[in-house]
Design goal:
The structure holds 2 protein chains of 2 kinds. By secondary structure, chain A is α/β, with parallel strands linked by helices. Chain A has 28 helices and 25 strands. Classes of the chains: A alpha/beta, B alpha/beta. At the A-B interface, α23 and α24 of A face α1 and α5 of B. Chain A: It is a multi-pass membrane protein.
């Protein structure tokens, strides 16, 4: 594969360029690497900062420990130092780096000392390198300092060399991703000098280790490690450069490592060895664990160990993978071929001579079958030998007792049965009966029961049925042989039967899981709305995981709880912060992760095809999810994400449709307004030009009619324009009705007169109660409303008379206008007050403007009254519009 | 006087109200129809010489009326339309309407359109004759174009374009009609051809190409050649 790359791909590797582009958007990380404390990293960092500051660069000190050294402290003069965050921790006040202050300040470069530092418990991230990662993501350049012994992959090596175990560790990937690594070097002898002069600060607790640590040999070894790491980086950079610029070179080693691990303690060592090997070879490496396909042999603890190991491997820069198969050797080789691996790394236990005789170890088998592959075998340290056994035997004890009971039961039953039969007939093959017992025990109780039953059967058979009976001695030699054959057959058959049982059990568990997942996805598919999908997912997750589950979705820019199960599950501030983090960064946060681990919930992003659609939180109460639950969780979250994404798309489609509908409405509106304005205009223009050019040829009646049409159309247009202006005033909120005393009788009278003038043929009947109180309002506006109502009645009322009534109702005054036209269907009654709504001819065109009633409502409400419509008004016909104004008892005072 | 009979199709009574006396006074006999169905019936039974058709009708689209009329009649049709209904107007013209007039319009303008449409109808089957407009002479038999006695050299496409416009002098010819008849049916949308060729044509035939008097632009619709003298 590597050869192919070299031959075909002369163009710059697009992935390499992309990675570079991605780096460009981020801040740059500069690591000042030293072999040991006291070599002068902080000093180097600060003096460089001073130089850049002098050049006008925005350099800020986020956190620097001067450890009271005056020469270092002097360098801080003239540099901006960010305030620290004060944290109470176990009764002591700690001063910590304030990440949010740094993000807020947004300098070009920030200096944060001591990369390997661990933050106190309630911090956002447990480790400082995670704080730094966040700064870099925000586009801020960071300078930091690191001693080589804190590097994860070197931890065991450093422990071996110096005898001191380093607790604060930094994943290799951090150093690997650093944009610049500056080696701060000091000869070990000089460092020891400085130490003796008291120039090296060391914490109180470490003084004991000082003598052990600061030995020439140790320091030389550490210095070598630091130098070599830096050299490796320089080499990597060279390779990067060659790749980016498509320079053909000897850069592709083409090596690829596969590292096999299990849950045993040796595996951690295997990973570390492999990490060093891979970085030495400059090769990618893949860490795999293999699971038996036919058995769920892995206990939660073992799975947990593998999980931890995978995390370690990932931090060291490996890919990780779980594979499932029965023949481990075959699976590993298959994977190696698929991945074009060149080397395999595997650990081996010390085996007893007996074990070596009976079976071949996995590494041996691998070595013999792996042609063309290098196999590295990592051996065990003496000390780490037998640590794993006890943890395994504990859960087994109970199972073993169960198996024993089954075995004993079956064998006892069979013996009794055999005895019973023996009384009546002489069975020559009573051993077959025992075989049945063994099979029975194996099916019910598993492999252990099968084995026990086989041994017990052999003993019982011998004791009860082989002559001399009731002794364990055997008279006939052929019976001895037969007994051994029986034992062998029983063990093999029992083993096979129990294996079948286990396989069936595993298959059943997986089928159940699959079935429930299938049911879930089917239900999910039938939900249209995102909300249903959310509830379904939450209840499904709760049922499957037996934990509190919350689902959050973004709403109006912020994340909110959409569903929780049980419904009373609540999130505190830390939980919400973690959830938002997950949403913003699309990475898990909260419990068990690198971000805000003291949240009770673990939050995972729901990633749909079009980005993040939500965040799911699972409460963790101590124990971790087992592998099956983890699988189910992933599957459910994936499906939910897709369902939510689909729901969101559906919502957007609906919104889009509504927008289109709105646009169509506005278009119709515009065309209707333009029609209403243009028709009178066309009539006027036509009539005027007709009169001017052809007037003398027309009859006087025709001339008169044309003049009259001009008058009428002008009136129509001015009414329409007035309506539009009124509407604009109502909408702009500039309508300020006067608060005069209004006599309804007067207003009605003048409106009716106006109507009669414009529709001479129509009969308008009025009925006004004598005891009407005055009302407070604007008589012009009330008159306009009445006229609009009468105008509608003229248009839609057919040729029937129109009735106007005004009467008293308690303290209120009611005014109604009733026509006897076709009426309005009940579903449209409310809509008639909407702007530009009109009931008209089939083509949608109508004599009105669609403004009259909405203006009426605007006016009436502005004067504190109410208006509504009733239809049918009487005898299944007609429409009545009723206005109600609050009356006033002022009549007497005025008159 | 041989009165021409005009069918006015409009559902607005106000429009009918001023058209009838004006057209009568101009010497036409007026027949009225308020719907598409009525219009089709009136054309069949009353044999009008010309139809004035409003595109917005209550029962059917004005375009449908044109399409069904053109199925069996070549009666001249003048459309009444609004300025903001450009596409509707063009579609109507492409369906076979003869001309259009935008609301609001003066009676003089309308009667001019009516006269042109009626005259063109009489000329439709006539043998091509020499045409003259604003000093420009087009002889379709000799395929000769001259301006004040001097021959104007036109490319074949320019000539085809000019002749097509001249045959419909006084009436609007849509872009599509020009493009499909001169360049072929595949070029119905290639408006840029037309812009270029009309520009060249004007350079050759107009006295002042910046203020064309022979080939006038009907914005968004097409071109109209001035009436022959």
């Amino acid at each position: 594969m590597a050869d192919d790359d070299r031959r075909d791909d002369r163009r710059p590797d697009p992935d390499a360029l992309l990675a570079l582009a991605d780096k460009d958007r981020r801040g740059k990380l500069t690591v000042f690497l030293g072999a040991a404390p006291g070599v002068g990293k902080t000093y180097a960092m600060l003096s460089r900062a001073k130089r850049l500051k002098a050049d006008g660069l925005d350099v800020v000190v986020g956190l620097v420990e001067t450890h009271g050294r005056s020469e270092t402290a002097a360098l801080l003069d003239g540099l901006e130092v960010l305030p620290r965050r004060r944290v109470a921790h176990r009764g002591r006040m700690l001063e910590e780096f304030d990440l949010d202050a740094a993000l807020e300040r947004r300098p070009r470069i920030v200096i944060v000392d001591e990369l390997a530092h661990s933050n106190p418990e309630d911090s956002r991230h447990p480790k400082r390198h995670q704080d730094i990662e966040e700064l870099i993501s925000a586009g801020i350049d960071v300078w930091t300092a690191l001693n080589i012994q804190h590097l994860e992959s070197l931890a065991d090596l450093v422990a071996q060399i110096t005898g001191v175990t380093v607790r604060e560790r930094v994943p290799d990937i951090v150093l690997k991703r650093a944009d610049e690594v500056l080696l701060v070097d000091l000869a070990p002898s000089e460092l020891i000098e400085r130490l003796k002069d008291g120039k090296v600060y060391l914490p109180e607790s470490a003084t004991r280790a000082v003598d052990r640590f600061f030995r020439l040999g140790n320091l030389t070894a550490l210095r070598e490690l630091a130098l070599r790491r830096t050299a490796d980086r320089v080499d990597d950079q060279m390779v990067d450069y060659l790749k980016q610029n498509a320079i053909d070179g000897p850069w592709a080693t083409g090596e690829r490592l596969i590292v096999c691990v299990g849950s045993d303690p040796l595996s951690e060592k295997v990973v570390r060895v492999a990490s060093r090997l891979a970085s030495g070879l400059n090769a990618p490496w893949l860490v795999v664990s293999i699971e038996r396909a036919d058995r769920e042999v892995e206990t939660p603890e073992r799975l947990q160990r593998i999980e931890t190991l995978f995390r370690l491997a990932e931090q060291l820069g490996a890919e990780t993978r779980r594979i499932i198969g029965n023949d481990f050797v075959e699976e590993i080789l298959k994977l190696a071929r698929r991945e074009h691996a060149t080397q395999i790394v595997i650990g081996t236990r010390k085996r007893s001579r007996w074990q070596k005789l009976v079976t071949r170890s996995l590494p041996d088998a691998l070595a013999s079958r792996a042609s063309g592959l290098g196999v590295h075998i990592v051996t065990q340290d003496g000390a780490a030998a037998d640590r794993v056994r006890p943890s395994m035997s504990l859960p087994r004890a109970k199972a073993l007792r169960q198996s024993a009971i089954w075995a004993l039961g079956f064998v006892a039953l069979t013996t009794a049965l055999g005895k019973g039969i023996d009384v009546f007939v002489q069975l020559p093959n009573i051993s077959l009966l025992f075989l049945l017992a063994v099979l029975g025990a194996s099916v019910v109780g598993g492999y252990a029961a099968a084995f026990l039953a086989a041994v017990l059967s052999a003993l019982a058979y011998n004791f009860f049925f082989i002559d001399p009976r009731h002794t364990f001695t055997i008279a006939a030699p052929h019976e001895v042989f037969a007994l051994f054959v029986f034992l062998a057959v029983a063990i093999i058959a029992g083993g096979l039967a129990s294996r079948i049982r286990e396989q069936a059990e595993v298959a059943r568990i997986r089928a159940t899981a699959l079935q429930s997942l299938y049911d879930f996805s089917r239900k999910l598919a039938s939900t249209g709305k995102g909300e249903d999908a959310i509830w379904l997912a939450v209840s499904q997750l709760q049922a499957r995981l037996k934990r509190k589950v919350v689902l959050l979705v973004p709403r109006k820019g912020d994340l909110g709880v959409a569903a929780a199960w049980p419904p009373d599950a609540e999130l505190d501030v830390t939980d919400m912060t973690a959830a938002r983090w997950t949403h913003d960064k699309r990475e898990p946060a909260g419990h068990g992760t690198g971000t805000l681990p003291n949240s009770r919930f673990e939050f995972r992003p729901l990633l749909g095809p079009h980005g993040i659609v939500g965040v799911c939180g699972i409460e963790h109460s101590g124990e971790r999810l087992d592998l099956n639950a983890e699988r189910a969780l992933t599957a459910i979250l994936d499906q939910t994400a897709i369902a939510l994404d689909r729901a969101r798309l559906a919502d957007e489609t609906v919104e889009q449709a509504a927008r289109l509908e709105g646009e169509r409405y506005r278009e119709a509106l515009l065309s209707s307004i333009s029609h209403d304005l243009r028709t009178p205009l066309a009539t006027i223009t036509g009539a005027v030009t007709g009169l001017r050019q052809l007037g003398e040829r027309m009859t006087p009646e025709n001339r008169d009619d044309l003049l009259q049409s001009i008058e009428e159309e002008s009136g129509r247009m001015s009414r329409f324009v007035a309506n539009l202006l009124d509407m604009t005033r109502i909408e702009a909120g500039t309508l300020k009705p006067k608060q005069d005393w209004v006599d309804i009788a007067d207003v009605v009278q003048s409106a009716v007169e106006r109507t009669r003038k414009y529709a001479p043929g129509r009969i308008v009947e009025t009925g006004i109660a004598a005891d009407l109180p005055l009302i407070r309002g604007d008589s012009v506006l009330i008159g306009q409303v009445l006229f609009n109502l009468l105008d509608n009645a003229v248009k839609y009322g057919g040729d029937e008379p129109i009735n106007v009534y005004a009467r008293r109702d308690g303290k209120d005054v009611l005014i109604s206008v009733t026509d006897h036209g076709k009426g309005i269907p009940p579903e449209d009654l409310d809509r008639i007050f909407e702007k530009f709504y009109r009931r008209g001819k089939p083509d949608g065109r109508s004599p009105g403007t669609g403004l009259g009633l909405s203006i009426a409502r605007g006016f009436v409400e502005a004067m504190g009254g109410r208006i509504h419509a009733e239809s049918p008004a009487l005898k299944k016909r007609g429409t009545r519009v009723v206005m109600r104004f609050p009356g006033s008892e002022a009549r007497g005072e005025i008159t | 006087m041989n009165q021409s009979r005009i069918l006015v199709v409009d559902d607005e009574p106000q429009i009918q109200r001023f058209l009838k006396p004006s057209l009568t006074a101009a010497g036409y006999e007026v027949v009225e129809a308020a719907t598409g169905a009525e219009a089709l019936k009136a054309v069949a039974t009353q044999a009008p010489d010309l139809v004035i058709l409003d595109l917005g009708l209550p029962d059917m689209d004005g375009k449908e009326v044109i399409a069904s009329l053109r199925g069996w009649s070549d009666i001249p049709i003048v459309i009444l339309s609004a300025r903001d209904r450009e596409s509707e107007k063009i579609a109507a013209l492409d369906l076979g309407a003869d001309d259009y007039i935008e609301k609001p319009f003066g009676i003089g303008e309308l009667t001019a359109r009516i006269r042109t449409a009626l005259r063109n109808r009489g000329r439709r089957d006539a043998i091509p004759t020499v045409m003259e407009v604003d000093g420009l002479t087009i002889d379709p038999i000799k395929r000769l174009v001259s301006r004040d006695g001097e021959t104007v050299h036109l490319t074949p496409k320019e000539y085809d374009l000019l002749l097509l416009l001249a045959r419909h002098a006084g009436r609007v010819v849509t872009h599509r009609t020009l493009l499909t008849s001169v360049w072929g049916p595949a070029h119905g949308d290639d408006l840029h051809y037309l812009r270029v060729f009309i520009g060249q044509l004007r350079q050759k035939i107009e006295r002042d190409p910046t203020q064309p008097r022979i080939v006038r632009t009907e914005p968004g619709v097409g071109y109209r050649m001035a009436e022959h003298e």
